[in-house]
Amino acid sequence: MLAYARCDKVSEQCPVSDTVFGYKPSLPINATLLALFCLVIVAQVVKGTHYRTWTFMTAMLLGSACLVAGELDLYVLVWSGGLTAW
Asked: What is the pTM assigned to this prediction?
């Protein structure tokens, strides 16, 4: 993996098959998942407010927000490993 230390985008020298997942995520699928996760966040706020489950709602919101950030990061930063590369 040291040979790919300078890779920051998919190119001939940095093939997508050598990334962590071995493929570049699909933009339409990522956009669909992003929209779905955003709808889930809205639903969690509505239900959490209605049932007054503040701690559970906060945990679910933080988890969903991390999931949204991860989906965006996975598409944009295929080579760097993104936020999870520590």
From this structure: 0.65
